[in-house]
Amino acid sequence: MDLHKEGDRGSAKQKKVKIVFVIGGPGSGKGTQCKRIAQQFGYTHLSVGEILRQEISSGSETGSMIQKIMKEGKLVPSDVTVRLLQQAMQGINSDKFLIDGFPRNEENVKAFEDLTKMEPEFVLYLDCPQDEMEKRLLSRNEGREDDNIETIRKRFKVFMESTLPTIEYYESKGKIRKVDAGKSVDEVFESIKVIFSQGKDNKVPPSRHKCKCLIL
Ligand code: UP5
Ligand code: MG
């Protein structure tokens, strides 16, 4: 799959590559729900946060730049994020991508559209109260460097200031599918299932209910 060619607009349709973005505040349950969606509806799950953390683990110079930004709860420059995301997508032969935690701001949207010439089919928005997200992150205990109260509050601020306008942008294009993510994992997934069951080519026969998650 070449997501880079000039004059390739519309290639998503020709090649039938479908993209769904999943956005929501820190701790809203993006990763948790994406795993389930990938399994049930046959999507390839790519977490952009995980892709960035893998770059940190690689020990590259870009990785150390990303690490500093993440520690501050800020956003990595779009050219870096979109390049890494595009590389990850190009390395996988899939026609359905679930992109978790992206885009975060309008610059991300533009960079993605400019580079890949693709647009999402729709954007799943996990809407969760901040106190609930804070509680979840503080009890996650996975050793993430940004899961301390100081960085968590900065991440919330960035979400409000940068990501909410992106949600409004997609809302204006009729692409937002919002669910109440403050409920239990099962209840949230029930609402999500309704959304993903609406597109007829989202339904996969039981034999194909195999998780294609790259990032777990
Ligand atoms: N949990 C989940 N659902 C629950 C439920 N319904 N009820 C009770 N508990 C629930 O869930 C968080 C915790 O809550 C888990 O313990 C889970 O069991 C529980 P999770 O599914 O992990 O939530 P998620 O929304 O994925 O939270 P995450 O912390 O991953 O979200 P962030 O958006 O903060 O993190 P991400 O990894 O996407 O990004 C990290 C950083 O990378 C950003 O801050 C930024 O610096 C950088 N970044 C960019 O710069 N650009 C990008 O495009 C992407 C990331
Ligand atoms: Mg996550």
Automatic annotation (TrEMBL):
For this UniProt record, the keywords arranged alphabetically read as follows: ATP-binding, Cytoplasm, Kinase, Nucleotide-binding, Nucleus, Pyrimidine biosynthesis, Transferase
Binding-site positions, a ribonucleoside 5'-phosphate: 53, 74-76, 101-104, 144, 155
**Gene Ontology biological-process annotations:** 'de novo' pyrimidine nucleobase biosynthetic process; CDP biosynthetic process; UDP biosynthetic process
Q: How is the cofactor bound?
A: Binds 1 Mg(2+) ion per monomer.
Tell me which InterPro entries the record gives.
Answer: Adenylat/UMP-CMP_kin (IPR000850), Adenylat_kinase_CS (IPR033690), P-loop_NTPase (IPR027417), UMP_CMP_kinase (IPR006266)
Amino acids binding CMP = 108
| Species for this entry | Solanum tuberosum
Q: Name one Pfam family in it.
A: ADK
* Record-linked NCBIfam families: PRK14527.1, UMP_CMP_kin_fam
**Domain of life of the organism encoding this protein:** Eukaryota
Localization (cell): Cytoplasm; Nucleus
Residues at which ATP binds:
27-32, 140, 183
This chain's function reads: Catalyzes the phosphorylation of pyrimidine nucleoside monophosphates at the expense of ATP. Plays an important role in de novo pyrimidine nucleotide biosynthesis. Has preference for UMP and CMP as phosphate acceptors.
Recorded GO molecular functions are: ATP binding; UMP kinase activity
Record's Gene Ontology CC terms?
cytoplasm; nucleus
Tell me the leader sequence span: none
What remark about domains does the record contain? Consists of three domains, a large central CORE domain and two small peripheral domains, NMPbind and LID, which undergo movements during catalysis. The LID domain closes over the site of phosphoryl transfer upon ATP binding. Assembling and dissambling the active center during each catalytic cycle provides an effective means to prevent ATP hydrolysis.
Assembly, per entry: Monomer.
Q: Which cofactor does it need?
A: Mg(2+)
Write out the catalysed reaction.
UMP + ATP = UDP + ADP; CMP + ATP = CDP + ADP; dCMP + ATP = dCDP + ADP
The protein in question is named UMP-CMP kinase
Per the UniProt entry, the Enzyme Commission number(s) are 2.7.4.14
Q: Does the keyword Cytoplasm apply?
A: yes
Q: Is the keyword Nucleotide-binding in the record?
A: yes
Protein family (similarity comment)? Belongs to the adenylate kinase family. UMP-CMP kinase subfamily.
